[in-house]
Amino acid sequence: MSDSCIHYGGGIVFAQLRNKLLISILIGLVVIVILGLVSDISAVSQSFETFQWGLLPAILGFTILNYVLRWLKWDYYLRRMDMGHGVNYADSALMFTSGMVMAVTPGKIGEVFKSYLLKRVNNTPITASAPIVLAERLTDGLAMLLLMGLGLTLYPPARPAFAAMVILSMIGIVVLQFRPLCERILAFIARLPVGNKLAPKLSTVYDSTRRLLSWRLLLVSTVISILSWFGECVAFYYVLRALDIPPSSLLLLQATFIFAASTLFGLVSFLPGGLGVSEASSAGLLVLLIPMAIGPATTATIIIRFCTLWFGVSLGAIALAIFGRRYGNEPLPEDDQITVEDRPQSSQESRTNI
């Protein structure tokens, strides 16, 4: 995380963060325009006119369910890793929601910003808590793979990609749990010219990562992830229902497969928010599997992206502003931004009176 992303002053207003968000919004608009041009614009417009907007509360409700369950996972990690001292549930929720503003970063890796917010509250070293965000992404990915797996019979060509992602995920988990190998890698890094400074931080990251990937924690967090992301699959189902597609268990299965697959494709593309890849794969799979015309498929894709990705980013911006008012009136010293050896500090000392 660059210095310009983590300076506070008069609340949380970061020039670089704002610029990146604006760029992502512009990319999102370009994607929508391209989708409209590729599809039938008049059909897209007509689909918006006939969309049953009375189902919008249900769509947003299941999206919010996803956010609530993912916050519970974040908070569960904090408590299990003994990093929740001085953090009440309201602050935990505020940190989690603030992190959603970074959902438009490549692979959502920018959500490691939550680690900096946690440091503001109880001085937990960023290198110790950052692996929580990585564990979140891993368990989210595993959940999406399992949800995608439910519908592999709908689209057999996806089976090789599914198998490859499952195998790579399991290999990564096993390797990280094999302590002797990782310790030898850390020892090798320590012998490099800059290794004496880097190795201690990487050691802290590895210790946290290994604890987070213990089988019990991994199982519990993956189950939470499956339930949370199924909420957004149900939201997508209601988007399709609002486009007058008859309800059925098959439609729910199709919605689950398409949403999980398009989200995964966007994630592994490592583009900001998966922009372009998620939309194209979603619209394409809708046309192929439902099947439906390209106009309504484009409408469904645009609506679900606004009700999931951009809804979350909007909530994150609001939460970040609130967090800034509570904690961000004084900038941290330069050497306190991303260091491991931090002085003790209570959450009350860093809280701003309002």
Query: How many β strands by DSSP?
Result: 0
pLDDT averaged over residues: 83
N-to-C span:
28 Å
Cα gyration radius (Å): 21 Å
Helicity level, as a percent range? over 70%
What is the number of helices? Answer: 14
Shape: globular
Strand content: under 5%
- Report the biggest beta sheet as strand number plus sense, adding barrel if it closes: none
Provide the low-confidence segments as ranges: 1-13, 329-354
* Total of domains: 1
Structural class: mainly alpha
Order of helices and strands: HHHHHHHHHHHHHH
Explain this structure.
- The protein is mainly alpha-helical.
- It has one domain (16-350).
- Helix content is 71%, strand content 0%.
- The protein has 14 helices and no strands.
- The protein has helices at 15-38, 41-50, 56-80, 89-99, 113-122, 126-149, 159-177, 179-190, 195-212, 215-241, 249-269, 277-289, 294-327, 347-350.
- It is globular.
- The two termini are 28 Å apart.
- Residues 1-13 and 329-354 have low confidence and may be disordered.
Give a topology summary.
Blueprint (H helix, E strand, L loop, with lengths): L14 H24 L2 H10 L5 H25 L8 H11 L13 H10 L3 H24 L9 H19 L1 H12 L4 H18 L2 H27 L7 H21 L7 H13 L4 H34 L19 H4 L4
Helix pairs in contact: 2-13, 3-4, 3-6, 3-10, 3-13, 4-5, 4-13, 5-6, 6-7, 6-9, 6-10, 6-11, 8-9, 10-11, 10-13, 11-12, 12-13
